[in-house]
Specification:
The protein is elongated. The relative contact order is 0.16. The protein has one domain: Ferritin. It is mainly alpha-helical. Helix content is 80%, strand content 0%.
C-alpha cells in the first residue's frame, strides 16, 4: 500500500513542529528578561500563526512533490527536509541554547532555504509556491524580530 504524499509531508511537518515546540519556552525567566521591541506580537499570537503555516507547508510540499518528476522531485524532497530541519533548529538555538545572535545566523540560513524552496515549489506547482508565500513572509518578520532582540541584548540576556 502506497502512503499518500500529503500524509508523508504532514508527518514531516508535525515532527519539525513538535521538535520546535519542545524547545520553545516563552515563559522561561531568561526569555522574559530579554529586552524585546514593542512591536513583538503577544505570546498567544505565535501558535495562532504557526498552526496554519505548518498546514500550508505540508500542503505545499505534497503538491510540489506530486507535481515533480525524477530529479526535480528528489531535489525538492531534499530541500524540503533541509528546510524543516532549519525550521526546528532555530528554536533549539534561540530558546534551547539561549543564543539570539547565533539564532540570527541560523534564521538567515532558513530564509535562504525558504527562498530556494519557494522557487522550487513555484516551478513544480504554482499553488504550492503560493502556499509557501505566507511562511516566507512570516519568517522574514521573525528574522527582524530576532535581529531586534539580538541587538537589544548584546550579552544574550
Amino acid at each position: 500500500m502506497r502512503v499518500p504524499t500529503w500524509l508523508k509531508t504532514t508527518a514531516a511537518v508535525t515532527v519539525a513542529a513538535g521538535i520546535g515546540s519542545l524547545a520553545t519556552r516563552p515563559g522561561d525567566p531568561w526569555y522574559r528578561r530579554l529586552d524585546k521591541p514593542a512591536w513583538q506580537p503577544p505570546r498567544q499570537a505565535f501558535p495562532l500563526v504557526w498552526t496554519p503555516l505548518y498546514g500550508l507547508i505540508a500542503l505545499a510540499g505534497a503538491r510540489a512533490l506530486d507535481a515533480g518528476k525524477g530529479r526535480e522531485r528528489r531535489d525538492f524532497a531534499v530541500a524540503y527536509g533541509v528546510n524543516l530541519a532549519l525550521n526546528a533548529g532555530w528554536t533549539a538555538v534561540f530558546f534551547g541554547a539561549r543564543r539570539p545572535r547565533a539564532a540570527l545566523a541560523e534564521i538567515a540560513l532558513l530564509n535562504a532555504s525558504n527562498l530556494d524552496l519557494l522557487r522550487r515549489a513555484w516551478k513544480a506547482d504554482r499553488a504550492a509556491g503560493a502556499a509557501l508565500a505566507p511562511y516566507v513572509a512570516w519568517t522574514g518578520f521573525a528574522t527582524a524580530l530576532n535581529a531586534a532582540i539580538a541587538r537589544r541584548n548584546p550579552g544574550g540576556a
